[in-house]
Amino acid sequence: MAHFEIDQLVQSLHAVRREWRESQNRSQEPGGRELPSREAVAQALEQLKGALFPMRLGPHDLRQESEDLYVGHTLDLALHTLMAQAQLELRASARQHGLPSDADPHRQAQSAIQTFARALPQIRRLLDSDVLAAYRGDPAARSVDEVLLCYPGVLAMIHHRIAHQLYGLGLPLLARIAAELAHGQTGIDIHPGARIGAGFFIDHGTGVVIGETAVIGERVRVYQAVTLGAKRFPTDAEGVLQKGLPRHPVVEDDVVIYAGATVLGRVRLGRGAVIGGNVWLTHDVPAGGHVSQAVARGGSAAELGTEAAR
User: Fold this and answer.
1) Domain-embedded: residue 16
2) Of 154, 186, 218, which residue is a domain's last?
3) Is 14 a domain residue?
4) pTM of the full predicted structure?
């Protein structure tokens, strides 16, 4: 039987943790868990998905006559879990930013999750529009039920609609955990800060990246390996990255972006524009413009509007 020097390993790991905490000014942390739990957030998200779509994503033996009872019980569990995790995030954030000790994270968490709960019907309406967009936009889709149960783009959007609401309520860590859980399952990376309108359809989806300050209109469709990213990362006088600045694309209504396209910077894709596959784009596209690889390499902005006729 193998022998491991467990006591020595414990002491060495303790020393490494102490070094890290001292370097991060965290040596006076209170006892108990200090940050939200991925496992708890994941559990709450599974419960929320079941409450939003009980007869499709709820328990396999649920009957319609018990639907409301299940939704009420499940929501109560999920929202209380989220409130506890929100309290942990808010308390940690207050310590990190040196906020006054009289701040009440419990009251703040309760208020945030109550607001989140009131938004759930609108989240469900937005998700219905995403499911319909996927069904109508994919000739291989046989039913809206197939889309909801099977499509990775829809799963990513369920997580994003929830995460975006949490992000807007001042809970960016909970939001990021929710987003990364979907990223791990689908390969679709949507920052919870991205603003996405109704009827959004991600076809296939693997490798899609949508940045924090991206703004996407209604009825937009993107394919696999599309990136809506930043062109550059401004720094301050000391070389520190400036966070929160608008740096990702604005995509207006009814735009289609085909597989492998990369759109960088605060550019605007006008309503009804079509961006071809594998295009690398760092400039605006007018409404109705079509961009192919050839135009992206050598065409001028004036040519974009006539590309559709070619």
Assistant:
1) no
2) 186
3) no
4) 0.88
